[in-house]
Amino acid sequence: MSDSKLAGQFFDAAIGLLTRVRDEEAKSIAAAGAAVADTVESGGRLFAFGAGHSSLAAQDVVYRAGGLALMNLLTVPGVVGVDVMPAPLGSALERVDGLASAVLDSSPATAGDLLVIVSLSGRNALPVEMAQNARALGLKVIGVTSVAYAENTRSRHASGGFLRDHCDIVLDSKIAIGDAELTVPGVEAPFAPASTVVTSAIMQSMLAAAVEQLVARGVEPPMLRSGNVDGGHEWNGRVMTENRDRIFYRH
């Protein structure tokens, strides 16, 4: 069987986007890493949020091998993931005014903490209000989004603003509107989205920059090891115990 032409084209598209983000967002990623390092060093807590498929990149940096133990997932019932039934309900909840405020008010997030909000379009009420309210509470906010949506679509928030308008630092994923990299005759809809690949890479590069910053400052970053290597569970148990007041996924 010969190689798939379309599969190769997807890899090319994803690599092209990753290269653009690496080159064009380098300063912003370094700034985001420094902000994370500042929060870790000052005793603050770290949170990540994403809705729908954007939640995948947020989940990817929480409680995982090689990850920063202090990163917590800020969850919104019915919005994180596609396990809610019916699935379109999750999309509808992203447009509900006031939901973000209720979530933040009942969360442990407080002034001095940092929140990373992942939203590809950044146009729905939930991520916009999440950023607005988090900053009002005194949190530092990093937005991971596609600026193309803010420049070429309409906001679904009453303010007319997008996620990027309410962040301290914005990381642009460069994903085109529609989030599909391939087209082919005979298929009416474009396909092969690359947002998860690119956004996850942004998140991991941001944390790599944070680790670099912490080491330069003489601060040992609390990292997790794989539970599938010898000593991994013992290592993670120690790290979690030492940082139990900043880790909420154990409770």
UniProtKB/TrEMBL annotation:
InterPro entries: RpiR-like_SIS (IPR035472), SIS_dom (IPR001347), SIS_dom_sf (IPR046348), SIS_GmhA/DiaA_subfam (IPR050099). Transmembrane segments: none annotated. CDD domains: SIS_RpiR. Gene3D superfamilies: Glucose-6-phosphate isomerase like protein, domain 1. It comes from the Bacteria. Pfam families: SIS_2. Residues 36-221 form the SIS domain. This is SIS domain-containing protein. The lineage of its organism: Bacteria, Bacillati, Actinomycetota, Actinomycetes, Kitasatosporales.
